[in-house]
Specification:
The chain is α+β, with helices and mostly antiparallel strands. Helix content is 41%, strand content 23%. Strands 1-2-3 form a three-stranded mixed β-sheet, with helices on one face.
Length: 78
Amino acid sequence: MKEFIELISKKLVEHPDDVQVRQIDREQEQVYELRVNPEDMGRVIGKNGSVAKAVRTLIAAAAAKKQVRATLEIVEEA
């Protein structure tokens, strides 16, 4: 799943080398934190969050096939 998120994210951004995905295992789900170059944040989120919503839908569908629960958090660097 981590590789899947990296693949999608790297295709969306202008700085693919800055894409980082971290997996966090919680009780009944897997949380993936996505970090990108600050300049690419708008590309990953999209207008009104449309791109982020689409990526989250893809991740949920892939996770359902594996019978796990997965969520994506887009982390903004401070």
